[in-house]
Amino acid sequence: MPLISPWRADFPALDALQRQGQTYLDSAATAQKPQALIDALAHYYANGAANVHRAQHLPGAMATQAFEDTRHKAGEWLNTGSSGQIVFTHGATSAFNLLAYGLEHLFRAGDEVVISALEHHANLLPWQQLAKRRELKLVVLPLTAEGVIDLDAAASLITSRTRLLAVSQLSNVLGTWQPIAQLVALARVQGALTVVDGAQGVVHGRHDVQALGCDFYVFSSHKLYGPDGVGVLFGRHQALAQLQHWQFGGEMVLQTDYHQASFRPAPLGFEAGTPPVAGVIGLGATLDYLNDVNQAAAAEHEAGLHELLRAGLMLREGVQLLGEPQVALASFVVEGVHNADLAHLLTEQGIAVRAGHHCAIPLISTLGLSGAVRVSLGMYNDAEDLERFFNALDQALEVLR
Ligand code: PLP
């Protein structure tokens, strides 16, 4: 198979970027958008914007319908069935903060929160700061040499003191799938709540939150080819019922006088103020588009590209991969070359990749590094994109060594 993406033409920015001399290989940071999403946003703004859940007029009713349709579609995307609810936030980061504040009342001094050594700052700092506020112990699960959470270590570190487990499904630095179902099972036996950071995982393949067994699952729309400013938080009914309200204002209130108030349950009780209406409607259009894509073909295409990327990097002298990436991305360093210098020369040649700590400073430090270069793929990338990357890499390395 020549590894030409049949979906590339659906993403107009790819052509535009190419005209600007840019090869986009940074989809793990944010993805380009399909025409279907752009059309949905234009249609919404051109035909009458309206606030949701409060207006009785026709534009308001239509916006509310489209907004709630997306809630349904997001539930279908994660196969929530009737197990729980979708809450819209402003991104994955705001969903983790919602959880850390909303669940705070459940913790007592000495309780333990378990995360892993590879967490993105978004799934580290809210828990770290909660631990400081409540005098909790933050337990960090170690990784194997391949970059996978060590299940043996997890089995001894997840104990009856564990009140919550929060782990990433797919590492944004190492490109490794994590044993989520097993970790969740270990935590559930101890009666702990479980949070899965699906920010990267949700983009690659379809995942079933009922099969994973987690209480909460979080992702950002913008990495799943949708608009930015929208996050999705799935919560099981019993888990959502334990959340205390944390942001207050319009729409989340049931009744109030000047001194007292009562609040709505999830989902609306956790969507204070005007939500990102256009963004949520746009996410719905994106999910419709993705539902029409043959998922097996997309997975096969991405696997082919990833193998090309991995093999090409491993072939080059002095290149060292971080962990053993399985899908979507690969991070690397080059012996004797500073990642910032390399990134600079790649940028000069129009290669859009990410360099630095990838919002995972503790992981990068643990690996004894100051940073790394990350190449990440989307469904619209072709083998030619990687060819341009490797040519640029060879040129850069010739200059730097
Ligand atoms: N978790 C992971 C694994 C990520 O890769 C990212 C973003 O890079 C996030 C969380 C945070 O997502 P956002 O910045 O959209 O809130």
Structural account:
Strand 6, helix 8 and strand 7 form a beta-alpha-beta unit. The chain is globular and about 70 Å long. It contains 14 helices and 15 strands. Pyridoxal-5'-phosphate binds next to helix 4.
Please tell me the overall pLDDT. Answer: 97
Biggest sheet details: 7 strands, mixed
Total tally of structural domains: 2
Bound molecules: pyridoxal-5'-phosphate
Q: Which homologous superfamily in CATH is the superfamily of the largest domain?
A: Type I PLP-dependent aspartate aminotransferase-like (Major domain)
Write the layout of secondary structure elements.
Layout: H1 12-19, E1 23-24, H2 35-47, H3 58-77, E2 84-89, H4 92-102, E3 112-116, H5 125-134, E4 137-141, H6 151-157, E5 162-168, H7 180-189, E6 193-197, H8 209-212, E7 216-220, E8 231-236, H9 237-240, E9 253-256, E10 261-263, H10 277-292, H11 295-315, E11 319-321, E12 329-334, H12 339-348, E13 351-352, E14 354-356, H13 361-366, E15 372-376, H14 383-400
Parallel strand pairs: 1-13, 3-4, 3-5, 5-6, 6-7
Antiparallel strand pairs: 2-8, 7-8, 9-10, 11-12, 12-15, 14-15
The protein binds pyridoxal-5'-phosphate.
Pyridoxal-5'-phosphate is lined by residues 91-93, 120, 122-123, 168, 172, 197, 199-200, 220, 359.
